[in-house]
Amino acid sequence: MDIDDTTRELLAYIIYNEPITLYRISKNTRFAISTVYKKAKRMLQYGLIRPLNISDTNSERGIYVSTVKGLLVCLALNCVDDESIIFSKLCQKWHLRSYCCQRIMKIISVLPALMSIDSGIMRMIDDPKTVMMMILEHRDQLKSLVRYDLLNDVINMAMHYLISRLIIDGGIITKSSILIGNDKFVISIGLDGNAYVYMCTLCGKSCIGMQFSVNYHDCVLLHEIKKLRNNSSILE
Q1: FRET partner for 10 with CA separation of 20 to 30 A, picked from 23, 75, 112, 188?
Q2: pLDDT one-digit tens code per residue, 193-231
Q3: What is the pLDDT of residues 110-153, one digit of tens each?
Q4: How far is it, in rounded angstroms, from Cα 133 to Cα 130?
Q5: Which SS3 state, helix, strand or coil, does residue 66 take?
Q6: E-strand stretches of the chain
Q7: Model's pTM, two decimal places?
């Protein structure tokens, strides 16, 4: 990305004052509207900002906000004096609850290693569920790139986030199901024999977010479930 000092300054201004129009930016800064419009167009192309209304993309009076990518780029370029502003806005845009929000810096510190494994993450960086799932999916590859204690903390955070969101968004865990797991798998099993896999790495495939019946699927996880059946009448 070709980010000059003007673009950097305008990105910082948007982050501090969003949502804001290009007209208002020009009025409150030293930059002419033509300059603001030109730089905003470039930031839109880079995915650093976005319009709240897609029809306002080419309008100086359209309302604009920063994106997660824009916040991360701003953090990397040190375009704001107070980094806590970036972290706070990341928590808002990722809709993180207090547990993960307190650990946002750890997630960010793992992102460079994750991008070196799969650069496609930047196309999905605005979706926290995708970020957390990719952390779990690439956990084995990250072991050689990230300090053990940091990676372990981030993995636990990712699992906690995904399970929390699945409970809130989908209501998958109900009164008629139980949640079981360890460091290798996390699943909920219903009384009807159906299970939902939040995360499983027992066979190295890193299965995430899938449903199956414990009665006919022959996989390593099935054997683990069968072991649990011997110890819990609720699974019989």
Answers
A1: 112
A2: 677 777 777 776 767 767 776 555 567 777 776 666 555
A3: 999 999 998 888 888 988 888 888 888 888 899 999 999 999 89
A4: 5
A5: strand
A6: 20-21, 49-51, 63-66, 177-181, 185-190, 194-200, 207-213
A7: 0.69
